Amino acid sequence: MYDEPVIKLHNIRMNYGGDDVLKGIDLEIKPGQIIGYIGPNGAGKTTTIKILLGMIYNYEGEIEIFGEKISRDEIDYKKKIGYVPEGGEIYENLTGWEYIEFIGEIYEVPAAKLKLRSEILADCFGMTGAFNDRISSYSKGMKQKILIISALINNPEIIVLDEPLNGLDANSVMVFKEILTKLAREGKTIFYSSHLMDVVEKISDRIILIANGEILADGTFAELKMKSKEGTLEKIFNDLTGFHEQGKIADRVIAALRD
Ligand code: ADP
Fold first, then answer.
1. Can you list the pairs that 215-218 forms with residues at least 24 positions away whose Cβ atoms lie under 8 Å?
2. Is the beta carbon of 96 within 6 A of some atom in ligand 1?
3. pLDDT of residue 47 exceeding 70
4. Which atom from ligand 1 is nearest to the alpha carbon of 41?
5. What's the mean pLDDT in 78-102?
6. Can you give the pTM of this predicted structure?
7. What gap in Å lies between CA 45 and CA 20, rounded to an integer?
8. Please, which residues have CB within 8 angstroms of residue 200's CB and are 6 or more apart in sequence?
9. By the 8 A CB rule, do 205 and 34 touch?
10. pLDDT (tens digit, 9 = 90+) per residue, 239-259?
11. Residue nearest atom 15 of ligand 1, based on CA coordinates
12. What distance in angstroms lies between residue 44's CA and the mean position of ligand 1's atoms?
């Protein structure tokens, strides 16, 4: 198995016009790892992902994917990446099958393989009955399933997930977690960004905590636990980001409602 880092970020800085939203991100990720990329809203998670995927160009620093520096006009590396975007924009006029066919064609998945894979994945996610209905008629969870199937359809080496569980029911979450664990065992690299700590805690081999555009902690859940006096990932997160206001904020809300 390829054992060099599949993703390298070196001193990545990003500025949208105000303060830096990424302040020098350094990361090396080996194949077969499930990375949990967590941080409060506005920490810079989605910006990191968009830079990694070549969707934002005007950053500083260097990125290597599979040992190759990526540059503005590079597209080949993208064929090895699957991506579930946050709050995914999706063409609602298409049927589930048409959307997956469209994505599969962009990734140049051969037609017979595309059909077979999508039928099996639709069945695994309980989507067969709705596969030929327009996406506009789907629930949030069903749309999310179509995005997940599309992200896997090219059998990518790197799977980038930005809040992938949005709207999924508990059984689908269990199926998806199991799929990710097994894909990682096959050597696929999973970059999983979320603020849902309980899921990140359970599936990630390595947790990277980002706040204000800086990495505050990077290690296994056990290592992060040692760094912090707190127990669950949620508490470690509050501890490392210096957030302890939840009790006071909740009290204010309750008090305001009583008045
Ligand atoms: P996260 O995914 O961790 O919630 P983001 O990467 O989306 O964080 O955002 C990081 C910061 O960059 C936030 O302060 C956000 O307001 C800002 N930001 C994100 N996208 C843009 C944009 N297109 N233009 C200006 N500011 C942006």
1. 215/25, 215/26, 215/27, 216/240, 216/241, 218/27
2. no
3. yes
4. 4
5. 91
6. 0.90
7. 13
8. 36, 38, 192, 194, 207, 233
9. yes
10. 877 788 888 988 999 998 898
11. 42
12. 6
